[in-house]
Amino acid sequence: MPAGPVHYPGTYAAGCYNRLLSTVAGRSVENEDMVNLPNWLPLRYRICPADAAPGPWLSPDHPYLTEHRQTLDLRHGTLTRWSVYEDETGRRLTVEQCRLVHMGEPHLAALRTCFACDGWTGAVEVESGIDGAVRNAGVARYRGLADQHLTGWETGAEQPDTVWLSCRTLDSDIRLALAARTRAPGGHNGVARPQLTALRAFHTLVLPLAPDSPAVVDKTVALYTSRDPAIESPRHTAVDAVALAPHFRQLRAAHRRAWENLWRQAKLEVPGESGRILRLHLFHVLQTLSPHTSELDVGVPARGLHGEAYRGHVFWDELFVLPFLNLHLPQVSRALLDYRYRRLPAACHAAREAGRTGAMYPWQSAGDGREETQQLHLNPRSGRWLPDHSRLQHHVGSAVAYNVWQYGQASGDTEFLHSRGAEMLLEIARFWASAADWDAALGRYRIRGVVGPDEYHDGYPDAAEPGVDDNAYTNVMAAWVLMRALDLCRTLPEPHQRQLFEQLQLAPEEPERWEDIAHRLHVPYHRGVISQFAGYGELAELDWHGYRQRYGDIRRLDRILEAEGDTVNRYQASKQADVLMLGYLFAPSELAAVFRRLGYPLDEDTWHATVDYYLHRTSHGSTLSALVHAWVLARVHRPDAWTYCEEALTGDVADVQGGTTAEGIHLGAMAGTLDFVQRGMTGLETREQALWLDPAPLRELSKFGVRIRYRRHWDIDLRIRAEQVRIAVPASENAAVRVNLRDRSFSLAPGTSRRLDLPGD
């Protein structure tokens, strides 16, 4: 189908970005987007009766359509569409089409289309090709901006069955090419006629058709870009790839084997409807972040490779993705961390430009590591373009550091942790140390002028400058980063430490300052709970009931208030979990230990009161919010956890955000639901060279199994059944796995298993 109000074909390649200038509200604004590449899907057809002129071109939108269904086979990664058309004279045409994007050969995709007729004899005419007349038009609110990213189109034909199209991106100058081979197997090749224009390359085939003689058309496509290694040119490589590609059945068989192997590595067994949704989430995650990702210089786009929302940018969503990948595809996790490492110089440059030291990672990343956050954003309710201060979310650096540390703990990859990982962690610690100012009156260090994960509050009411002070999440995470940096300094082998300190020009007094700040960063409180930021408790209370009565869905409360001429900065209202993110990242004992080092007690009553306080002041304007609340409530108030877990599961399935899923699925939320089962309900941690378990299964998810990869052990099987936990370590030559289940500790030798009753709450 062509792009329109209902359909939007999109083709995206990981890491393929381009930058354009637009005029917004009288200002010149630059945006870098993940580019919608030429469309490889076009394949239309029409009935050519022996006794009449050809009919109209058919598609699932045509009035002749009488039956239609489509099936997504998650296990084997294929989409099958089945359609029946009937014209005014009763001629029926049945079309079955199977689509795949090859998981084994990442440059290949294929379509097989089968035609069968009923009530007539003649032929079917098929037009198959590549369409280069595409734009980035998948997000309605971006449509006033520049969207033509491609230029320099060329088209051509090779052999009797292959056409190609090449072009390049306007600014980033990425050269790309697609080649399409269209064949009719079984000796019914018809007459292939290439049709070439400046922007399109097509083949037309006319195939005989009779009630007892169906026709089949196979379309095989290759896509290459100049970012791909070991190629002469994208065009020549794409043409050669389709020439050498096997026929559809072989392609499909190899594709199925690749998916089956991938499902084994990421096995997750959850019964019922929840299990079906989780498998759909896992399918989407693996499409974007497969083992092929380990060979690429790419990050984690917030919407995956599934749409153009957020322009394909990389935010902090890897914080919700890597913990799952660490225990299944650690090589992919390392590649995603390498993406951050290659952009470390840009982060250090950004810190210097801001008058800081160390590394200040951007809130939004894309191609080269500079800050990609737009300076203006559109409120669709008011139609006004407003200043965007979300670039002040410097906590993204802490997310990078957290992922470095957690990857090292889960994988045992000390080579990475002591080299690239250490460089990133120490430079991020440096940034936080330079951002912390001493307040003599308070007797504490403070971090001012930031935006927290909440995102609603980008400043104080009527303040001249943006940002808030002492965001609790930001400060606690900064302290944690400093603590981990100090741990790393102490555990690095002495020659390696000396070399690294010389390379980074790290002065001996810097770690001493880190130690002081890590113990004395300010965390604000009010009315016995942790404050989201300094002064949060002094803001006005919102009439939540009144706004829900007036507007119904108030997830984007910030837009509602701005359209009314008000601002969410005046109220105790959060878009998504902020303080509660701490309970998502850290087990209760670890979080309490961080607060103790800061000199603050965090007992169970204080944390429970904090959770309850923000539970009633959050609008859940992000799909990540329900996930975090479910995770935290599973430990604090289990009966309420399922409500949020269910919302997190159905976020994209039911499009709970009201239209955002069409712009691209929410990859972080999808991966987070998988990790909710894997780590949230098992209490699984990887630290101190052991697996730690503290199960807290929900009644609705009380029976499940996961298979994880921990260091050198593949396929450790972990199952929760009723009030028991079973863990099995596969046979190998590796050392035993140390396991801690709450207050019990034991070792499991390879080839053994153990079943234990869960302690009562």
Automatic annotation (TrEMBL):
Annotated Glycoside hydrolase family 65 central catalytic domain residues: 279-674
Active site: E455 (proton donor)
SUPFAM superfamilies found in the cross-reference section: Galactose mutarotase-like, Six-hairpin glycosidases
Keyword set, alphabetical order: Glycosidase, Glycosyltransferase, Hydrolase, Transferase
Ligand binding (substrate): W316, D317, K575, Q576
Domain Glycoside hydrolase family 65 N-terminal: from-to ranges: 6-227
The protein's name: Family 65 glycosyl hydrolase
Provenance organism: Streptomyces glebosus
